[in-house]
Amino acid sequence: QQEKEDLEGKLKLREHLSQTAGKSEATPVPSKNIDLEMKQLQCKLKNSNNEITKQLTTIKSLKNEVQEKEERIRELQAKISRLERDLNMKRHLIEDLRSRLKANQENEKTSNETLESLERKVKALSEVCSNKKTSIDSLKQRLDVTTKEKSHYEQIYHKAKEELEKKDLKLINLESKMIETEYAMTEIESTASQQLHALAKQSEQALETVQKKLLLTSAKVEEFITFVKALTRELQHSVQELRTKIKQAKKMEEVRTRKKSLSQESVQLAASILNVSTTDLEEILEVEDDAETAKTKMEFEKDKEWLQYIQKLLEAQFPFASYLMDAILEKLNEKKKLVEEYSCLTKHTV
Fold first, then answer.
1. pTM above 0.70, yes or no
2. Which residues of 131-154 are buried (b: 16+ CB within 10 A; e: fewer)?
């Protein structure tokens, strides 16, 4: 986004430069090349915007897919934990039933032994112990109850065995599903890493191209700054030359007027009085006054301030083209006035 803003600022600067260059007649600029560069930069901007939007959409879709897969994994893990808890509960129940069954079997064995011993005692003491029939009946009833309990426990044992077999089948199915989900997760991770690697390569290539373009644009800006500095120096030098030429022409005009006003005899007389030659006398007459020296110093200071102002404009932030154009036009107008003044002076001397 920052590179995009920089490119847009440069486009605006180029548009402004092309508009101001079309207005000024003194420095013509090739507008066709500028238009072509502007169109190229606009096309590059559009392409970079399209690439950025594509990358953002792909990243969002990948993030959504990863979130969905993570939610699916969490649901499966929760189901597995619930099934493991149920399985542990049922295992504890089966162990409890087995312990009860063992206890009942031991009771049955003891009851069978007591029953056999009682039958033998009944056979031996049938004649003597007729009164024990009631106790034998009660024992038979107890035996019936124990046999019923035994059959009942056997049914429970078979049911528990069937349920255990069903749970084992479910556990096998769950393990196969877990293996399938792990394999799918590894495939998803590999594809995601490949896509991220490709995206990273594309972003690195785009960054390299943008860096090259930035280097080219910075080189162009440096060339433009050197051109502006050279142009301002040349303008200031030409203005100074014109000023010196105007001063020399004015001096020549003054000398001529003085020579016209003074005759040759008076000049020789003044030279003989001062004990100097006629040429030295002319040089003495050509000496500048204090007002002229102050004026030259002021003009020199103005030129110095103007060059410093141009330097500040070039070091300032965008936009500064209008201020730069105004400063150069001001110096050009000054040069134009000096040229007109010099041409007037040369005409008078001719």
1. no
2. eeeeeeeebeeeeeebeeeeeebe
